[in-house]
Every structure is written in C-alpha cells, then in structure tokens.
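User: Can you recover a sequence for this backbone? Please restate the input before giving your answer.

Assistant: Of course. Working from this structure:
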C-alpha cells in the first residue's frame, strides 16, 4: 500500500515536469515568434541590411536512388564509379560568401553560372528561412557522367564527319576538361588534345590549351582570361594566342573547285572595367586591347588547286570596346532546349569595338577595324518570344569598306499548344568586298561564317555576298524522360533561301531554293556537354529539295550535334 508521501512526491514531480515543458514550449514559441518578426522586418528592409549566412552545398548523384525508376543495379553502379564534383569547385563559382551583404541578384547570377558548366545537369541557389539578419543559402546541383569514349558521327549535305577518342569534362571531379580525339571531316583528319579549366580559382579566370595535328597542318591555341563572368564583375583581362596551318576550299554547287594552303596567327591582350559599380540593372563597360592578326596563302600541292589564291593580309591595332547590358533575365522552358531551364535576357545587349590598324600591306595600312552587335529578346506574351540580333563588322581604309558584313537575324517562338512551338527564323546578310576565302555560303547545315539552313541541299551549295533565308518549323517537345537518360522532341520544317552576288568562284546556282523535311531531337540528361554553356541536342533530319535540278539527291539526311533545338 502506497503512502500519502509517495503520492505527494509523484504529484510534485508531475508539476515540475509540466512546468519545465510549459516553460520550454513557451520559450520555443517566443523564439519562433521572434524569428517570424525578424523575418518580417527583414522583408521590409533593403536587402543590404541582411547578410549571407551559412552556405550549404548539396551535390546530388547522377541518378536519384530514392526514385524507384532510377534505383537499379546499373544506375547504382554508375553513381558508385562516378567521381563527384568537389565542393570547392562549386564554391568557386558562387558570387557570395558567408558574411557578405545579402543580394538576391547575386544568387540568381550564381545559379546561371552553375547552369553553364559542362559537368552539371541542373543547378539551384536559393535563400532559406532564417532567424535574424543572417540568411542561410542552399545550393543544389546534380551530377552528370563526364568520362565518356568520344564516338561521334555527323552527316550533312552529303558530307560525313566522324571522330573517336576520350573526353572528360570533369577530370577527377575538379571541373577541368581533358579531351583526346581523332576526327575525320570532308576537309581534314586530325588528332586533338584539349585542356580547359573554366575557373582556375584565381580571380575567376579560365585557361585553355589546345593542340591539333591535322592532315593539312597544325593548330595551336592558348589563352588565360578573366572574363566578365557576372554582371557584378568589376574588371576583366586576358591574353590569347592562336595559330593554325590548314587547307581551305572553295565550292560551286556543293563541289570543291579550288584549294589553297592557309596560315593564320592571331594574338590579343586586353583589360576592361565596369564603369559604375553602383548601378545594378544597367551595366556599362569599357575594354581596351591590342591585337595582331596575320593571314598568308599558298597554292596547295593537290590536283584540285587552281589559280584562285587570296591575298595575304596583316593587321596590328589597338582597340577600344564599349559594352552595355541591361539585366532583364528570366527563366523559360522549351524554347531552345527540351525540358531544361533556359536563361533569357529581355534586356538590350550592345557591343561596339573600333581599332586603328597599321599593316605592311598598303591597302590595309592606316585602316579602321570595326565590330558591333545589338541583341535583345522581347516577350510579346506568356506564350510568345522574339529574339533579334544585328551585327556589323568590317574594315574601312582608303575611302572604302572591305571584308565588311552586316547580318540580321530574328526568330519567333510561339507556344501554340501545351508542348508545341511554332518557330520562324529570318536571316539576311550583305557583304562588301569580302575576302576571297570568306564568302557567304548556304546549303546543308554548314557555313564558313556560321551560315546554315537549306537542309535539303548539299553543303556549300551556294556562295556569294548576299544571303536571305527563312526557316519555318512546327516543334514538338516530349515530356517523358526515356530510360531515365534522355528527352525527345521532333520538328516538321520548311526552308527557303538564296545566296548570290560576288564570289571568287563563279556560281552555277544562285536562284531561290526550297526544301521540306522532318526531324528528331534527342537531348541527353545524364551525360556531360562538350562545350561550356551548351546542352547537346542530337539532330536527325530527313529533308527533300524542291528545286535545284536533277543532279541533287531527292533525300538528304543530316545527323548532327547542336547547342539548341
């Protein structure tokens, strides 16, 4: 039988425990209320009153083993064998550190930088709920498999290219690219060694080293550049050296008619600053530099050569460049990629460079070198976007322009149904006294100045100094991730274009040409990209020409890896 004393002791203990629990709960409620009050106060204050707190970096494996669709022995083995990116590599790309003044724009820019990396699939940089003026930040990135045998094949306009080797865009998890590749194209065969570091950790600089031993010469490139990596970056500088020896070709109706040896040396150094570091949305920059550029040509020792040899040229010039960028970045989906976040700037971007060149060639001595560009995206509605780009480059001396080119490009993207897009692209270009080795070209999906289109015709089918092209597509973006490895899309397209005017080689084709076709698009989701800031999309197109005569195959097929849909 329990005595009254024991009951009294139990009652005293119960009261004490209840009191402690109530006190603890009250303290927690007061603490939570205090955090909520502080957060409400922080929300009402300018962001520079807050500071960056702890930064948590979460590096997620290639395959999510908590997802039953990705939890199998093969994907688990891939995760096990893969060397994850080191946390320090991710940290080097962040524009904020603990203790810095809080700035949501810097978080957004950090996220955009991480999205450009070849070795990451997705990236997110977000502020987290916190207590007081210190705001924690969480960084989430997902890995991709980067060490892959390089096995590539492309076919465009009757020309086939292939390559094999070994490529790693995240060597030992340090974010460096190492590439050993053998390639064969219609122009040349060769072996390439490439080392690229997108962020050395020294002033956010990048370093590139390339060496290629080709059948028609050697190519060497080296550069160390501290770019304007972000809108907030206050200065830039760099030095670069490029040298190649190769054979260039001229074409008529897709057939080679001339070949010559081409040697080029290009060296440049520069330094630039952001003009007003206090301005946030509207960025102004000035860059000064010095460039030497030399091209020499010789007759190639092959039967295909003729007497059309471009004149040698050399330019040595200081230059100054002005840049203006308006920060209007938004996130979009299914514009030029498949089911990926795309960073699109709705603000204007302007670049203008002018230099004064001296040259041992009298025709180029005391001349001006000009390069300029204006680009902007316009959101007509939630479903409609227009991209516009205008460039004007060239030389002016002896009271005339030469190797000058004005080029305009505009594309219209309309989400005409849930996972569809109606796409129209217009391109027009006008050259003035273009160098003989640099004509405007059209055909297949290849062009010496980046020209493309007319997928139903052989590569280099037309050449001249005037170009007009329209491409119309109905695009389809698949939603499913097939085999947890890739997304798919498709397109029905129509191309119509023409190149005409002055050319070193007389052209037998200069009329308007049309083609129709269908295409398949494949976007890998678990393998690294070959270029910085580009997500690879495999294009498989079948096109049929509607003009051009009987000598053209009625079916042209194109297999190519591109940066966009």
């Amino acid at each position: 039988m329990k005595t009254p004393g024991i009951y009294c002791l139990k009652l005293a203990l119960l009261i004490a425990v209840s009191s402690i629990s109530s006190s603890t709960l009250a303290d927690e409620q007061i603490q939570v209320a205090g955090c909520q009050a502080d957060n409400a106060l922080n929300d009402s204050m300018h962001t520079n009153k807050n500071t960056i707190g702890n930064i948590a970096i979460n590096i997620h494996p290639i395959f999510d083993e908590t997802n039953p669709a990705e939890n199998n022995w093969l994907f688990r083995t891939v995760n096990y064998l893969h060397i994850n990116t080191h946390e320090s590599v991710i940290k080097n790309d962040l524009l904020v550190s603990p203790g810095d003044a809080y700035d949501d724009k810097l978080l957004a820019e950090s996220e955009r930088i991480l999205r450009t990396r070849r070795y990451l699939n997705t990236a997110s940089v977000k502020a987290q709920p916190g207590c007081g003026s210190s705001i924690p930040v969480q960084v989430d990135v997902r890995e991709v498999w980067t060490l892959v045998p390089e096995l590539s094949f492309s076919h465009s306009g009757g020309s086939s290219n292939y390559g094999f080797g070994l490529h790693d865009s995240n060597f030992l998890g340090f974010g460096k690219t190492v590439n050993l590749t053998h390639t064969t194209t219609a122009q040349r065969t060769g072996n390439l060694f490439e080392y690229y570091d997108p962020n050395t950790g020294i002033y956010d600089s990048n370093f590139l080293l390339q060496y290629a031993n080709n059948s028609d010469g050697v190519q060497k490139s080296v550069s160390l550049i501290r770019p304007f990596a972000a809108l907030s970056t206050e200065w830039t500088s760099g030095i670069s050296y490029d040298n190649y020896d190769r054979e260039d070709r001229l074409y008529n109706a897709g057939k080679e008619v001339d070949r010559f040896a081409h040697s080029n040396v290009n060296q440049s150094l520069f330094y630039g600053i952001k003009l007003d570091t206090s301005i946030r949305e509207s960025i102004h920059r000035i860059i000064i530099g010095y460039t030497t550029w030399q091209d020499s040509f010789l007759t190639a020792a092959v039967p295909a050569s003729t007497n059309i040899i471009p004149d040698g040229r050399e330019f040595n010039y200081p230059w100054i460049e002005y840049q203006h960028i308006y920060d209007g970045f938004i996130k979009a989906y299914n514009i030029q990629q498949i089911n990926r976040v795309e960073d699109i700037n709705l603000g204007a971007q302007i670049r203008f460079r002018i230099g004064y060149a001296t040259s041992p060639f009298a025709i180029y001595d005391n001349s001006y070198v000009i390069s300029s560009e204006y680009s902007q995206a316009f959101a007509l509605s939630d479903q409609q976007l227009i991209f516009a780009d205008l460039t004007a480059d060239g030389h002016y001396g002896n009271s005339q322009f030469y190797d000058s080119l004005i080029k305009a490009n505009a594309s219209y993207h309309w989400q005409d149904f849930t996972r569809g897009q109606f796409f129209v692209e217009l391109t027009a270009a006008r050259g003035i006294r273009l160098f003989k080795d640099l004509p405007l070209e059209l055909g297949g999906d290849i062009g010496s100045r980046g020209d493309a289109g007319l997928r139903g015709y052989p590569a280099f089918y037309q050449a001249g100094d005037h170009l007009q092209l329209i491409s119309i597509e109905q695009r389809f973006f698949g939603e499913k991730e097939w085999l947890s490895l890739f997304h798919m899309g498709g397109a029905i397209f129509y191309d119509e274009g023409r190149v005409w005017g002055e050319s070193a080689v007389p052209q037998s084709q200069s009329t308007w040409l049309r083609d129709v076709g269908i295409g398949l698009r494949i976007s890998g989701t678990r393998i690294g990209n070959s270029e910085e800031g580009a997500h690879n999309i495999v294009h498989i197109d079948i096109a049929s020409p509607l003009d051009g005569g009987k000598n053209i195959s009625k079916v042209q097929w194109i297999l190519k890896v591109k940066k966009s849909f």
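That completes the design. The two ends are 86 Å apart (CA to CA).
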